[in-house]
Amino acid sequence: MSSEASPDKPRRTRRLDLWGLYGGSALLVLLVTLVALQFVQPAPPRQISIAAGAKDGAYYRYAQRYAAILARSGIELRVLETNGSVDNLKRLLAPEDAPELALVQGGIATDEQKDALMGLGSMFYEPVWLLAPQGEHQGPLNQLRGKRIGIGPPDSGTQFLALRMLSRSGISKSNNDFSSTDMTAAADQLQAGELDLLFLVSATDAPLLRRLTADQRIRVRELPHAVAYARIDPSLTPLTLPAGVLDLARGVPRADVSMVAATANLVAHPDIHPALVDLLLAAAAEVHGQSGLFADPGTFPSPLHSDFPLSSDAVRHYKNGPPFLQRYLPFWAATWIDRTKVMIVPLLALLLPLIKVLPPAYAWRIRRRIIRWYVALRRIDLELETGARGAHDLAKLGERLEQIQREVAQVDVPLSYTDQLYNLRLHIQALENRLASLEGD
Questions:
Q1: Which class is domain 47-322?
Q2: Which of 90, 168, 268, 407 falls between 20 and 30 A from 358, CA-CA?
Q3: Ramachandran bin of 164, using left for φ above 0, alpha for ψ from -120 to 50, beta for the remaining angles
C-alpha cells in the first residue's frame, strides 16, 4: 500500500500548527497591550507658556533663560509679558488660554488661589528696594506722610507689597501722593526728582535696579524695623545689604542696609505634565543655583518659603533629585520609557512565561498527534490478533491503515521530532507487511 501527498501540504499543516499556537499567543499579547495603553500617560506637550512680567524686569529675563534651557530638550517655552505677579495669578486661573506656569511674588496669593494652584518651589529672593534721592531724610516708614511715593503699577507684586507695608506703617492714599505708573516711568520720575521714594521689588541683577543704583543722585534707603516687618509678615525675610557690595569703587551703599525680601515662587497649573516638573526644576537650578548677594550656592530653588502647596513631583525632586532615567538619557527618551513602563511591565510578565511555555506546548501538540496515530495502529493490531481473517475484514483494516498513512504523509515536524515520525512510519510499514501476509494466506 502506498499514498502520495503534495510536498507543500505538510508544510502548510506545520504552518497552521505554528499559527494556531503562536497566533493565539500574539493575540493575547495584543490584548494586554491594548489594555495597558489605557494607562499610559500622554506625552509632554512640545509648547508651554509662562506668565512673567515687564520686559525690563527680572521675571521676564529669568523666564527667557528658562526658555533657552528648555529648548535644548525640545520644549518651547513662550514668555508672556504681564503687569506683574497679581496679573500672573489672574492669568493662571483664567478659564481660557491660561499659561501653564507663572513667576509669582510671595505673600500676594489668597487662600483660594493657593488651593487652586500648586508650587514648584521658591526661586530667588526679591528684596524690597527703597530708592530715594540723595539727602532725603532716612527714618521709619511712618514718617513718610505727605511724601510722593512710587508704588509700582496696578496688578504688580511691587504695588501689592508696598501698600501692605505702608498701611502697616500708617501711610495711606489719604495722607500721601502715590504714583502707580509702570516701573520704567517711575524710575524716570525718581531720577527727575519728582518722587521722594520708590518701592521696587526686584532681584538684585534686574536692569532697572542697576540703572538706578548706578545713578549717584539715587541711594538705597535703610528700612528701620526690618525684622519687625518680617515677623509680622511671614512671607518676608530680613536681609542685610553689605556696604560697598553694589559698587566697591564708589562705595555703594556707604553702610550696611537693613532690608526685607519676598521670595519669587514658580507656580504651575494643576494639570501640568509631571515630566515637565523635573525639567523645569533642573532649569531653575541652572539659573538660580549660583551664589548671589543674599544667597549661598545651592540655596535656590528651594521647597522652603513656598506660598503654594508643593506638587508631589516637586517634593520628590527636592528629596531625590531628577529621575534616574533623566540623569543619563535625553529628556524625550527618558520620558518615553517612563510613560511606557506601565505597559512594558505587564508585557514582560506575560512574555517571559510564554517564551518558556510555547516550545513545550508545540512539542506536546506534535507528540499528541503521533500518539493518536499509535492508538489507531494499536486498534488495528488488536483486531488482527483477535481473529480478523475474512477478506472483507482485512480490506476494511487496510483502508484504515491507508488513511493513517495519508495523514502521516501530510505531517511536517521540526528536525528534533523526525525520529518519532520515522519510527511511526516503520510501525505502519510493519503492520502493512503483516496485513499483506494475511491477505496472501
A1: alpha beta
A2: 407
A3: alpha
